[in-house]
Amino acid sequence: QVVLVIQLRSHDYRSLQAVGEGRYDKQLNAFIDEWKADGNRRLGIRPMHEFNGDWYEWGTYRGGSNSKAAFKRAYTHVSRLFRKRGANAVMQLSYNCVNPNDDQTSFKEWYPGAEHVDMVLCSAYNRAGIDSDHQKWETFEQVFGWGYKQMAALPGRKRLGVAEMGTTSWGGHSKAQWIRDAFKALVNQYTRVEEGFWLLQNKDGSGDWNLNTRSEVAAFGQSMRKYEYAADGVKGKGGGGGGHGTQ
């Protein structure tokens, strides 16, 4: 499945209010017009991703007018617009897997309602070494486990996924082993996950997110081959179908 991450940018950290008021409707409608003219093929729509953070204009931890209520209003507005226009959209609610500063606020506080959501995902990164605030190596379970439990507890039993995932190779730790462990956990432990997207792009100035060594390439390829059929079999029993992707 192809997924479009929609960034409704304002550069003043008040974009949630603007989205909820419909100030981006012209651009969204123009996109839907082109999409439908191209055949209206099924597409994942992921608006205002990682909203439970403080690094984007729509982040609810930015303070000011970017409240949880403002987010729910904005997301609901976008979801209704796509549905009203008959767009063949899979509406994806995309959290960060942890809240800033280890805040334990439940994901339910941002949930706009089951009728506006087709799939729930969160971003899970081991960011070890990228800056002074990330000086601890974390396993996939540590970066994804809490978010998975939060997503699984949301009303409506929606399809679940990993919006973005990846790891550095900081401090002599093995990125290859992290990759193997992550694939194993997704299949055997986090059994409701149906879709995942791995970041394969060196960013943040670290130059370290891609598969940069032969051992890392081998770990990724071998894990894909080892688990793809097992995952399809598990998901197939529920009629959902498995999925994966890269960025």
From TrEMBL:
The keyword Secreted does not apply. It comes from the Eukaryota. InterPro entries: GH, GH26_dom, Glyco_hydro_26. Residues 1-234 form the GH26 domain. GO terms for molecular function: mannan endo-1,4-beta-mannosidase activity. The keyword Hydrolase applies. Keywords: Glycosidase, Hydrolase. SUPFAM superfamilies: (Trans)glycosidases (SSF51445). This is Glycoside hydrolase superfamily.
